[in-house]
Automatic annotation (TrEMBL):
It comes from the Eukaryota. InterPro entries: VAS1/VOA1_TM (IPR046756). Residues 289-320 form the V-type proton ATPase subunit S1/VOA1 transmembrane domain. It comes from Sphagnum troendelagicum. The chain crosses the membrane at residues 293-313. Its main location: membrane. It is found in: Membrane. Residues 1-23 form the signal peptide. This is V-type proton ATPase subunit S1/VOA1 transmembrane domain-containing protein.
Length: 325
């Protein structure tokens, strides 16, 4: 009876150990897949930011980032009195890259000195009002940053009765929202000129640009960097005279691809000249964890079975002397 009790205790202890191991692997997988990226908001028009340059060190989510954009750059001008010099923007442009992370800002290697960071530094420094958010956390179980921001802006601008048209360019996945699809940066200039004539009074449009190497289609087969593509978008906005608020943030490929269907991912990779594979970084990490769990289950099963078999063997407590013939 005592041996059976000991065997059960061993089985329970190993089961608890296995459960804790699986839970720990899930936590590690969550932490390793979470991505922290920076965000920069800037504008040349009056807004609620008292200082010309502001920094918010709190960890934000894509949803809170969209709320901050509206609360600081749109809502005060909309709700202010007619005598105020704050004017609501005509368009909110969101540029989503796929490389820059929060840790890259303080680095001194080639990425930190890239044209993207130089361009962002010039745009923020050249604006009247800006807000920098170093830490925007993107989890693997979230929908894409583009879809989150479109949903938040649509809700918040709708509550202010300012929601205009949503235009999307690049590889953005924005869910079931009603949008106007632009082929690339060259279509942006014509779109801005058209909206100047067709935009209803009091409306604020949303332009979502998700970077791909072939975003600029004026030179077919030639890829452009994020910095150049961002510069083209902002230059077109300024030349059109459209009052705007700009937001740059990043949604690295590993955090975004998991929310796209296989067909969409294939189209994006084909357009960028990359070879598609059947398993990305997130897929490989999950596969390794599952392999470890399966191996652990097999080894623990063998161990428990061996211990129970050994404890089930009944050996005599004493041996009789051989009988003399």
């Amino acid at each position: 009876m005592g041996k059976i009790l000991v065997c059960r205790l061993v089985v329970w202890a190993l089961a608890v150990f296995l459960g804790l191991s699986v839970a720990a692997s899930e936590v590690l997988d969550f932490d390793s897949s979470a991505t922290v990226v920076p965000a920069f908001l800037w504008t040349d028009q009056r807004c609620s930011i008292k200082e010309g340059r502001s920094i918010d060190y709190q960890v934000q989510s894509p949803e809170s980032l969209g709320n901050a954009l509206v609360d600081k750059f749109v809502r005060p001008a909309t709700e202010s009195s007619h005598g105020s010099d704050e004017v609501p923007p005509e368009i909110i442009v969101v540029f989503i890259g796929n490389k820059l992370r929060a840790v890259d800002i303080s680095r001194t290697d080639e990425l930190a000195s890239s044209d993207l960071l130089k361009m962002l530094e010039r745009l923020v420094a050249g604006s009247k009002y800006s807000l920098s958010i170093p830490y925007v956390s993107i989890r693997k179980d979230q929908i894409s940053t583009a879809e989150t921001l479109v949903s938040v802006l649509h809700r918040e601008l709708g509550s202010l009765s300012r929601m205009g048209e949503v235009a999307v360019s690049g590889s953005c996945s924005v869910g079931k929202q009603s949008i106007k699809r632009l082929a690339g940066v060259p279509d942006l200039k014509a779109y801005l000129e058209t909206r100047k004539e067709t935009r209803a009074h009091g409306e604020t449009d949303v332009l979502m640009v998700c970077y791909t190497p072939y975003l600029d289609r004026t030179a077919p087969g030639t890829s452009v960097s994020e910095g150049r593509a961002l510069n083209e978008v902002i230059s077109n906005l300024r030349s059109s005279g459209t009052r705007h608020v700009a937001l740059y943030t990043s949604d690295p490929k590993g955090a975004t691809e998991g929310h796209l269907t296989i067909s969409v991912r294939h189209l994006i990779d084909s357009a960028s000249g990359n070879e598609t594979t059947g398993c990305d970084a997130v897929c490989h990490s999950r596969a390794r964890i599952l392999e470890g769990v399966f191996v652990a289950i097999v080894l623990i099963t063998i161990l428990v079975s061996g211990l129970c078999c050994m404890m089930g063997v009944k050996t005599p407590t004493r041996f009789e002397l051989p009988k003399e013939s």
